[in-house]
Amino acid sequence: MLLPTKNVITSLEVVAHANHSQIGYISGCFDSFPHIPSVLKKPHCYWSDVVVLCFSIANPNSLNHVKTMWYQEIKHFCPRTPVVLVGCQLDLRYADLEAVNRARRPLARPIKRGDILPPEKGREVAKELGIPYYETSVFDQFGIKDVFDNAIRAALISRRHLQFWKSHLKKVQKPLLQAPFLPPKAPPPVIKIPECPCTGTNEAACLLDNPLCADVLFILQDQEHIFAHRIYLATSSSKFYDLFLMECEESPNWSEGVCEEMQSREFQERTLSLDPDEEGERGPLRTPQADEGTSSSKDMSESLGLEVEGAAPEMQSLSGWSKGFIDMHKEMQVNPISKRVGPLMVVRMDSSVQPGPFRTLLQFLYTGQLDEKEKDLVGLAQIAEVLEMFDLRMMVENIMNKEAFMNQEITKAFHVRKANRIKECLSKGTFSDVTFMLDDGAVSAHKPLLICSSEWMAAMFGGSFVESANSEVCLPSINKMSMQAVLDYLYTKQLSPNLDLDPLELIALANRFCLPHLVALAEQHAVQELTKAAVSGVSIDGEVLSYLELAQFHNANQLAAWCLHHICTNYNSVCSKFRKEIKSKSAENQEYFERHRWPPVWYLKEEDHYQRVKREREKEDIALNKHHSRRKWCFWNSSPAVA
């Protein structure tokens, strides 16, 4: 035998079936590969009962060598020995050739799709040589037993001519047909969720240092000014939540007209004045964070040439409401980053509140983190006690007692409370400072949270775009439900579980806002819904076809791959119901369908050939049996009955 292994002699015990009777045989196998044909001159080649001639279906040259060299050599040295042609590596017909080539040796010749031989090529050569043909795959464990069983049958049939008196040889069947190999269905691709981007903590700390879109101004010791954001403070501290909620209930629409007038005047001045020297004469502004002795916001507005109109602000005393606070009022102030005028809530703190510990407290409210190397822990503990922030007070005590490891549970509880309050503010629109005008309604949101959660939003609200100065932003071609889902994700980094929207609309919006993590979550949600519908017996073929190219257009590559897999593995049923839709797909998709459809085209052709030849053999066997029955000897004739 010729097998693609090492040049060794082995013994195999094979059970051959001959007309339902089992006969045991010991087959000795030796291999001539990769030596030259002179190996056939070895003595053990002279008494070979059968030769199995192998080639690789991924190497057309090996099949050519079967005709031009190997078969001629075999017939020269073993003229009466039967030959069986075997095509190896059948699994390469449906394998991922890119993965196969990556796993091979670096200098190995890569396998190309055009190198894979169809079954009819090997069958044509076998028919030309007059020998049986089989295919095998060691990877799938297919065809190996067929090769050995039928090789033994071929050897026994050739021996039957010389040992015709042996009765068991008369019952041996000729080599049987091999049923075609149906490759297994490829498993559906798994939707992989990339690691969630760690946005929020660092951005929140940066936003505190560079207070873009600030709406709160704390005045400490009548000279230190600290800008902050209500949404971060209110969602992190119940004390600040009650403070700002009290302010919202008293005058929710305070100075909207003044704010819009100042913003429009500023925008007109920036539009009309295009001389760069004019801005240079004004000189750069110094932020309160850069200099402790900075001037007041009124001086900054005067340096910009802006006059704040309106009566004197109404002071609201807070000394009786809580310790640490003196009063608060609303006032038009200039933002130190954007240099725009806007309404701010000015809160004057008690003289006992020191700037350093208070800034550390704000940093904790923004990020939920407390530095163990903080210098003034005592002052921080006092301010936390005054402002009723008991979780921060407990964390400081743990650090002072060298039990900082206990702060992990406190930090987790802090983030859970903050997330729940953020959801509440989003659903109710509390402390919102921007409204998105959509096709079917409006959705309120918070600029500071959006800036820290999305680069797209940070560019829109933190740059020189017109939307950064407006409280209303128009977003065309977006519905309210999709926008609400995107905001839920930006605030919580999770996809809302009870979504009743079109996944493709959410994917399109997430791709528009440059949110790949949300795209992956929406893809996973879409696949789960489609799978659930398919399990319940609902046909999803039409929906998958409509999803395919839209998913490809909106960079939902994982959903597109899943749709391609579903169409290919159910190609016959999909094509029978949606032939026009299949033909209308792009040329690239149609090529993919033809290459990865299941069952593959080569299998369908082989199945047709197998069934046709099987019927022909059955007819031949029936005719042969009738012929044998007529040739039976008869020693007397039955005479008719005598009446």
The shape, in one word, is: elongated
Strand order in the sheet with the most strands: 7-6-10-9-8
CATH homologous superfamily annotation of the largest domain = Potassium Channel Kv1.1, Chain A
The main pleated sheet reads as:
5 strands, mixed
Q: Roughly how many Å is the radius of gyration? A: 41 Å
Q: How big a fraction of the residues is strand?
A: 5-15%
* Overall strand count: 13
What level of helicity do the residues show?
40-55%
Termini separation (Å)?
A: 69 Å
How many helix segments?
A: 27
Q: Which CATH architecture of the largest domain would you pick?
A: 2-Layer Sandwich
CATH topology of the largest domain: Potassium Channel Kv1.1, Chain A
The secondary-structure class comes to alpha/beta
Mean pLDDT: 82
Count of domains:
3
Give the C-level CATH assignment of the largest domain: Alpha Beta
Q: List segments where confidence is low: pLDDT < 50 over at least 5 consecutive residues.
A: 1-24, 254-311, 639-643
